[in-house]
Amino acid sequence: MSQVINVESVMASLAELAEKYMGVEKNRLQGGIPLAELFDSLCLLELVMLLERKLQIDIDIPSHARRAGSRLDACELARAVVRQHSARARPLRRAAFMPLPLLAAA
Q1: Of 10, 41, 49, 76, whose CB count within 10 A is highest?
Q2: Phi and psi of 39, rounded to 5°?
Q3: How far, CA to CA in Å, does 85 sit from each of 21, 41, 102?
Q4: pLDDT averaged per 10 residues, the chain (length 106)
Q5: In whole angstroms, what is the distance from residue 77 CA to residue 4 CA?
Q6: Do 48 and 59 form a contact (C-beta atoms < 8 A)?
Q7: What is the pLDDT of residue 1?
């Protein structure tokens, strides 16, 4: 993927999408206000889907579902997106297998 995904770029994308599609000013997203105060759960889901489409990645938010309803802000969401993206981009480690023991002739 040629696109750089870091916290700043995800925050900028979130702010741009929220302003364009939901009428929320960019500075409100960057001010640390919990997302639950800015959006209802359906709008937050739509924002995540728009972000997925823009960045062309899959975002797994259910792992953060308990926090999404309470104090999750845009910066924490951006960090979660970057963590998930970097975890998926890492090459899989190959397991080292021990050789099978040679069977003795009976």
Answers
A1: 10
A2: -135, 150
A3: 24, 23, 43
A4: 77 93 88 85 89 87 54 85 78 59 67
A5: 17
A6: yes
A7: 42
